[in-house]
Amino acid sequence: MLTRRWTTLERQRPRLKWVKWGEIVGVLLTAGGLVGSGTLWLGIFLIIGFGYYGYHILSKPHD
Question: Any transmembrane segments, and where (predicted)?
Fold first, then answer.
């Protein structure tokens, strides 16, 4: 499902696994909110938050 490059990045920076799962949960909650479960904003905030966290991880030089 994800590219080989992402898999390599996950091995180099294990915290990116949290980003991947956070984004997946955010998408599921957003989709649930669109059908009326009331989780739309929570899902959007998770997507934005984990996106920023992933950007922060990737923008730092690798140790």
Answer: 21-53
DSSP characters for 2-62? Answer: --HHHHHHHHH-TTHHHHHHHHHHHHHHHHHHHTTSS-HHHHHHHHHHHHHHHHHHHHSPP
Taking a C-beta distance cutoff of 8 angstroms, is the pair 10, 20 a contact? yes
- pTM: predicted TM-score of the whole model, two decimal places: 0.81
Tokens of 42: 């929570």
Measured in degrees and rounded to the nearest 5, phi and psi for residue 11 equal -65, -35
DSSP 1: -
Q: How far apart are CA 37 and CA 17, in angstroms?
A: 27
* Residue 39, φ and ψ in degrees, nearest 5: -110, 15
